[in-house]
Design goal:
With 161 residues, this protein is an alpha/beta fold. 34% of the residues lie in helices and 19% in strands. Helix 5 packs across helix 6. It binds iron/sulfur cluster. Residues 16-18, 24-25, 49-51, 114, 117, 119-120 line the site of iron/sulfur cluster.
């Protein structure tokens, strides 16, 4: 067994890039969460931004899920639409698949994802009207990781542990 394989065996989590201070958010900013950054420093977590991985630019127009949550997007029953009305469903699904691929490559069985994001949100997302209303549901990446059997939590749950 080579050293790289041994290193990956330490990794337990995939995490949202913006939570470790990378400026990957739609507005070009980040949402640094020091406990998540510490996990990366300790070699226990690897970051990815699914929206960037799906091919979207940074900054990028804000997007929300319309017609359902991430589970319905994956089932073809809902879409991801920007505030300007552009359909970015394909990019969101491609990014979610990249996050799942990363998790499988490194053997991560858990994810810590940014709350309320249309990709990373877990348990609560914006309602698709760009009015700040929050509804129950998962973002596209969170939904895909859950379907694949990963345990998904938000940074808020981690901080409350
Ligand atoms: Fe952060 Fe996820 Fe949004 Fe990327 S898609 S900026 S990782 S919340």
């Amino acid at each position: 067994m080579d050293n790289k394989t041994t290193d990956f065996q330490k990794v337990k989590y995939v995490v949202s890039s913006c939570l470790i201070g990378l400026n990957t958010r739609y507005d070009g900013g980040n949402k640094l969460c020091k406990p998540v950054l510490q996990l990366v420093k300790e070699g226990l977590a690897m970051p990815l931004c699914p929206e960037q991985a799906g091919g979207l630019t940074t900054p990028r127009p804000p997007a929300e899920l319309v017609g359902g949550d991430g589970k319905e997007v994956l089932a073809g029953k809902a879409r991801v639409i920007t505030k300007q009305g552009k359909d970015v469903t394909h990019e969101f699904i491609a990014g979610a698949l990249s996050m799942l691929s990363l998790a499988r490559i490194i053997g991560a069985e858990k994810a810590i994802l940014k709350s309320l994001s249309p990709s990373c949100g877990c348990g609560a997302i914006y309602d698709g009207t760009f009015s700040g209303n929050i509804v129950e549901g998962d973002g596209v990446t969170a939904a895909l990781l859950k379907e694949a059997g990963l345990e998904v939590i938000t940074e808020e749950e981690l901080e409350n542990d």
